[in-house]
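Key result, reporting period 2: structure in, sequence out.
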């Protein structure tokens, strides 16, 4: 199968992390990314589309300096992953409750400047998205089958709730970002493993 070669990681790694397993709810927008619905009612996302969108997101983010990128994760399962992403890429990260105005109000202690926003889940991270819109920043969001996609410029379909799924996503994103920026060679891997990105 020639498809396999083009995936960012072997497909069994994706499957093992459950990056393609959605929820029992599906929004109209996310329907086009759904491959099938299982007998237990869970929606399954299309692996090729996941892989393709991760590639697009990594390429897009690579056009920005690390300090111009802000990653927000209210969801605890993503904290370890985003913090390691921050450490390895030097991007800005907000793990925990995002304070409205962080991107727009210089009076706030938490104020920071950025040029692009990546959120782990548009629902709990909606305040960050609202700020990004005010600041006229592009928004990339990891979206599960139950997410709405309003105000999102680039949707990356994936399981945005699972520790393993988020760990794998940020492992790939970190590697691709560093490769695209010339910090890693094209075929060079991270010293860190997917497990290092995965919340205990």
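The corresponding designed sequence is given below.
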């Amino acid at each position: 199968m020639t498809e396999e070669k083009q995936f960012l990681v072997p497909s069994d790694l994706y499957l093992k992390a459950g990056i393609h397993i959605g929820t029992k709810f599906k929004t109209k927008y996310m329907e086009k990314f759904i491959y099938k619905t299982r007998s237990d009612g869970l929606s399954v996302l299309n692996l090729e589309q996941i892989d393709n969108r991760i590639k697009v997101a990594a390429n897009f983010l690579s056009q920005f300096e690390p300090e111009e990128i802000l990653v927000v994760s209210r969801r605890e399962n993503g904290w370890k992953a985003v913090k390691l992403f921050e450490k390895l890429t030097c991007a800005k990260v907000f793990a925990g409750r995002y304070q409205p105005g962080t991107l727009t109000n210089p009076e706030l202690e938490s104020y920071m400047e950025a040029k692009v926003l990546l959120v782990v889940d548009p629902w709990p991270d909606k305040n960050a998205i609202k700020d990004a819109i005010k600041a006229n920043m592009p928004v990339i969001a990891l979206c599960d089958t139950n997410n709405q996609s309003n105000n999102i410029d680039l949707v990356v379909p994936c399981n945005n709730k699972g520790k393993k799924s988020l760990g794998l996503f940020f492992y790939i994103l970190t590697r691709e970002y560093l490769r695209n920026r010339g910090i890693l060679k094209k075929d060079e891997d991270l010293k860190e493993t997917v497990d290092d990105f995965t919340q205990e």
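The longest helix spans residues 163-180. Residues 13 and 168 are 8 Å apart (CA to CA). This case is discussed further under Risks and Mitigation.
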